[in-house]
Amino acid sequence: MDFTDEWRAAVRKRLPDAVDLRHELHADPQLSGSEQDTAALLADVIGCGSGVLAAGTGRLISVAGGGDHKAVALRTELDALRVVETTSVPWRSTNGAMHCCGHDVHMAAVSAVATAAAGLDLPAPLQVLLQPREEGSRSGARDVVREGVLAQTDAIVGAHVQPQLPTGTVGATPGPVNAGTDEFSITVRGRGGHSGYPQTVDDSVLALASIIVALQQIPARRVDPVVGAVCMVNEVRAGTAPNVVPSSVAACGTVRTMREVDRVAAHRALRDIAEHVAAAHGCSAEVELAECEPPLHNDNGLALADFPVLAEMGHQVSSEFRSFGADDFSFYGSAARSLMLFVGTGTATGALHESSFLPADEYVGIVADALIAGYSAAVLTQRRR
């Protein structure tokens, strides 16, 4: 599109400042629910006012554009994780939190795109959504949707660095791209007692171990393998002494699905398996489920329109990348057309959420390209509607 090259050129002039901003944000990360200073800093850099409050500590800022098109929003996450950084860069974090999911890169890219757009005549209004609490269980995106902040927004675009993709490749995949993720806890209860008299107790530990193994039926037998699912138990609490059978043990984990129908079926299967396997061991089981994020589906039209724009920019594009990672960006699909793009960093940068994860500064520009391409795709598909 005519404005795309001009926009990219304007972004390139702002990249040094954006990289400096990335370093500043990385050195002073803020945890979920405490992102006020981060949001204020970004709003000040963007220079289009403080915007409208969103989800407590976030903001929706109107940046530029007009014409007869509906608004397109670019989303960035604000929060960091409670991880002690182990990199050696001068701008590493020392406060016990870390941007080890690339949010510092995303924020810097959005700032460059937004400041460059302020001097352009864009065909559709541009909004920037500074979203809090992406990493927390209290989803910021869910609150943004509930508050109606996106009532005037036709499409929302996000871009996320992704080590599972080769360096420089951008994933623009139609349909499901991230799993819906729900957390569960299972508590097993039975008669405790002396391990030397097994006939007098109900072995709650054995019951829980059998449940953990049996839960693998969910991805292996209850969901179409072409679509897939994941059920992982990652926390187990049992016992206080080697010769005492505990009367209560517990396990926690996550179940991940790509389709809502599988999500419902997995929840039902999880309860059935836990309760019946426990009963077979003379125990009882209680299951608690916390619904976190639904599956993330990219709008087909947006993804297909984005592919040639990215290719024209010179990027390698994948239309097949999907993962069982989760992102609360999935909530936006109920409020606007949504598109999540993935910017490959390769495995040399480390893995997401690792204390050593540190994409190079060059990815600020690539994420910026992805956001501009997403905006362009939204404008193109508006014209076809």
Please tell me about this protein's structure:
With 385 residues, the chain is an alpha/beta fold. 34% of the residues lie in helices and 25% in strands. The chain has nine helices and 16 strands. It has helices at 2-27, 36-46, 103-117, 140-146, 204-214, 217-222, 260-280, 300-312, 363-384; strands at residues 52-54, 58-64, 71-77, 126-131, 153-162, 169-171, 175-178, 180-189, 193-194, 229-237, 244-245, 248-257, 284-293, 296-298, 316-318, 337-344. The strands form four sheets. It has an eight-stranded mixed beta sheet, with helices on both faces. A hairpin with a 3-residue loop joins strand 1 and strand 2. Helix 3 (103-117) crosses helix 9 and helix 5 packs antiparallel against helix 7 (260-280). The longest helix is centred in the N-terminal third of the chain and has 26 residues, at 2-27.
Which spans have pLDDT < 50 for at least 5 consecutive residues? none
Categorize the overall geometry.
Answer: elongated
Give the distance, in angstroms, between the N- and C-terminal Cα atoms: 18 Å
Q: Classify the secondary structure makeup into a structural class.
A: alpha/beta
Give the helix tally: 9
Beta strands, count? 16
- Our Rg estimate from Cα atoms comes to 23 Å
Helical content (DSSP H or I, runs of 4+): 25-40%
Order of helices and strands: HHEEEHEHEEEEEHHEEEHEEHEEH
Strand percentage: 25-35%
For the report, how would you describe the main beta sheet? Answer: 8 strands, mixed
On the 0 to 100 scale, the average pLDDT is: 95
- Strand order of the biggest β-sheet: 1-2-4-3-5-16-6-15
